[in-house]
Write a structure and sequence with these properties.
Layout lengths: L1 H31 L13 H57 L5 H33 L7 E3 L1 H18 L3 E6 L6 E3 L1 H17 L6 E9 L2 E8 L18 E2 L3 E2 L7 H11 L3 E5 L6 E7 L1
Parallel strand pairs: 2-4
Antiparallel strand pairs: 1-3, 4-5, 5-9, 6-7, 8-9
Helix pairs in contact: 1-2, 2-3, 3-6, 4-5, 5-6
Length: about 300
């Protein structure tokens, strides 16, 4: 009787194992055919249970990777569309003004104005190309960094002074409020200054006359926290979540990045390359962008 029971149990167990192996095989075939919502469960043997869990985990990871690649492809398509739009506008203006000058359809005064406008468009196109090239090199890690101790008060004061002329031309006040910084920052000074230039320039551009832009810096443990705050209209809605994405423009506030909208994404890449992070802080008035880098 015991032998018969054992034989019967063995057959049942064997059939269960065969069935579960078949289920795992069918799940893998379905994944190969494009299905990504399969979950494999097995309990006939510990080894099969582990295999089933590994297959389920693999399917989930594959689905996540495909979603990430899909998002990246979508972002690349938007990037190409944005680049095409941003290139088309100045190129069309340049073509029309150049044709008018060549056909002698404008007087000398208009010709001089056209040449000045063409110069502005050419500079804008050059800045856009430079930004795109720098962003690609940052994302590829193809840059040499000169990381050293940086006395932040001197760097901030120098940057604010350089931006003061642009701010005063628009009637905006710009100032630095620096807390006690017992330790220097650990950074590449030129690229750190690029971040500050981008943030201050954006703040000036989106702050009305009689408004103000303030740069603050303070020690935060092993980090140095820097903030650029303005008294403009601020950023609302979904624009807050996408502020540091390439070619993003706020619908209500205009473009928050420099040039083609790459200024902030370049700033993010630089800060993250330092091991820090950058974010949009909550603010009752205006916009406050903060970032931290190691002390």
């Amino acid at each position: 009787a015991a032998a018969l029971v054992a034989l019967r149990a063995g057959r049942v167990a064997s059939a269960t194992v065969v069935r579960e192996v078949g289920e795992i095989r069918d799940a893998l075939s379905a994944v190969g055919a494009g299905e990504r919502d399969r979950r494999v469960v097995a309990g006939a043997a510990a080894e099969l249970a582990e295999l089933a869990d590994a297959v389920t985990l693999m399917i989930g990871q594959l689905a996540q990777e495909e979603a990430r690649r899909g998002a990246a492809d979508s972002a690349r398509r938007r990037l190409v569309a944005s680049i095409s739009h941003d290139l088309r506008t100045p190129l069309t203006a340049l073509r029309l003004m150049l044709a008018a000058i060549e056909d002698e359809m404008v007087d000398e005064r208009t010709r001089t104005r056209y040449l000045a406008t063409m110069h502005t468009h050419v500079n804008a196109l050059g800045s856009m190309i430079d930004d795109m090239f720098e962003l690609s090199r940052l994302e590829a890690g193809d840059l040499e960094w000169s990381i050293r101790q940086v006395e932040l008060p001197e760097l901030v004061d120098e940057t604010v002074a350089a931006m003061r002329v642009e701010a005063e031309a628009k009637g905006v006040g710009v100032a630095a409020e620096l807390g006690v910084l017992p330790r220097p920052a650990r950074a590449d000074p030129e690229r750190l200054q690029r971040v500050l230039f981008n943030l201050i320039q954006n703040a000036i551009r989106h702050t009305p006359a009689d408004g103000s832009v303030t740069v603050r810096a303070e020690q935060a443990g092993d980090w140095v926290e820097i903030e650029v705050a303005d008294t403009g209209a601020g950023i609302q809605g979904e624009d807050r979540e996408r502020l540091f994405d390439p070619f993003v423009r706020g619908e209500n506030n205009g473009e928050r990045g420099t040039g083609a909208g790459l200024g902030l994404v370049i700033s993010r890449a630089i800060v993250e390359a330092h091991g820090g992070r950058i974010w949009l802080a909550d603010s009752e008035v205006g916009t406050r962008v903060r970032f931290v880098i190691p002390a």
